[in-house]
Amino acid sequence: MATAERESLARGRVRRLLDAAAEVASDAALVEPLCESTGLSAEGVRLALSRHLETDAGEAEVAALVAGAAPSPHVHVILSANVFTAPLRALAVACAASPSVSVRPSRRDPVFTRALLRAAPGVGVTLVEHADVGAVAVGDVHVYGRDETIAQVRAAARPGVTVRAHGAGLGVAWVGHAADLEGAASALADDVVVFDQRGCLSPRVAFVQGDEERGVRFVAALGAWLSELGRTVPRGRLDPDERRAAARYAEAMTFAGRVVRGADHLVALGPTGGPLIVPPPGRHVHVLVVRDVEEARAVLGPVLRLVVAVGSDDTAAATHLVADATRGRFSALGRMQRPPFDGPVDLR
Questions:
Q1: Which residues, listed in sequence order, are joined to residue 173 by a DSSP beta bridge?
Q2: Domain boundaries, position 239
Q3: Which of 122, 141, 115 is nearest to 13 (CA)?
Q4: C-alpha 323: how far from its chain's center?
């Protein structure tokens, strides 16, 4: 099949998935089961469906996604449970690569995947509940999740089957010396509340360029905006591991840094020159004051390779922050959780 014909068919499959996603987003009956499976509040689920589910991607975005996908005779997708809307992007990548797709939904959070496929019966995706990776004879396996899961899949895959891993990721914000602190804090708060910060695009670390006084002002502003958003989009439940991690982080930062705590969030200003502590999800943000991008890169150190999203209104600084370290997504603050549907991050 010629490349042009293959890509045209792939664009059609992706477009049908997007149409199905629009149908799912309008189904109010899904809110309650999604609350149960994800732990998000009802307001958090509605926010994700209305503003962070890609239902209106343009033709250029879809074409770019398809052009970046590696063709395959079959793609088997193994999904994780971090962000409930993520199956749309994962299945779009698979459908861009192949007319034959199978998917194993997350056992903890299968609700959205099943609803999406019910709304897209002719798109060529088969839902399987207990797929054996070793039974995939040809093509690719796209696996999403923890490093341990990825290692298990690689070990089980047959020779000749390509495993494309989508592992852990970290979102970082850069607030440059020229940024308006109040505006940057308001925009970053929008990015933090979505999915209760569980996705790889979710910002959990923010660098503020300048002096400590500027960092203190930013922490106070971010805490105030998170309190404001918390009244309209309450945080959902945290599982026991998340609660324990949150308690450890709060204790460490109360001892070593400056903390602004709300009913459902915590913003901490780490000590100048101190180490990076990546906080757990659940609306926790670790803020560090730095002189420049080079200092921020040095602080990121061993986690630099995990940075897949940078939010800032200073594109040059944001790009340099993770230069040569990752295939990342650069967005304005406030849009980190709404990237274009064109491939970066998804095709990493």
A1: 206, 311
A2: 171-331
A3: 122
A4: 20
